[in-house]
Amino acid sequence: MTDKGKNYKRILLKLSGESLMGTKGYGIDENRLGEYASQIREIADMKIQIAIVIGGGNIFRGLSGATKGFDRVKGDQMGMLATTINSLALSSALEKEGIKSKVFTAICMEPVGKYYSKQDALESMENGEVAIVSGGTGNPFFTTDTASVLRAIELETDVMLKGTRVNGIYTADPEKDPSAVKFDSISYDEIYNRGLKIMDLTATTLAKDNNLSIIVFDMDTVGNLKKVLLGENIGTFVHK
Question: How does DSSP assign 119-151, residue by residue?
Fold first, then answer.
């Protein structure tokens, strides 16, 4: 089952904060950021409405912070701020590419970003802007994967694209197991039954319950984002 090649009108792109590190061990690699912005410009030129959620793992991850003595709630709030930093950086990079964007925040942070609402984000996309939604869900104990699924459903997107550093979903971690086999498509039930760690269980369940299609692909290879939207057989299609 696949609908790759479908004429998508509105998408949500989930980007990995850790991938923004590029060749660096921490923070933002300006070259990787520029590559992302260039790829996003390519699909914006296709007149596709774009919402983006980006993680903050290149700066701070709340869960790992909790294991080092941080209060979990405060750690997650620090993670929300990290996603906002990344969102502002991406917005600036998009501006350099000639693409208008607007940063929304799940917690009130004006004038850093506009407080998120579905209506405002939709209006922004309909006006040709890229809507970058930061701050996760605005609540602790929820990952940016869950926030991505939530926003994709809320904004009535045709598909969620999960950009990673791996070119799809495998039977095991391909970076650790050379015998791992890639899936062209897979159901949410099979992901759960196989115990595959594609997203956390909350995000997976929310996507399944709302029949949200997801394509997992390698965003770090320049040009892949456009290829996915043109229907090329890269990545893994996740369906109900």
Answer: HHHHHHHHTT-EEEEESTTSSTT--HHHHHHHH
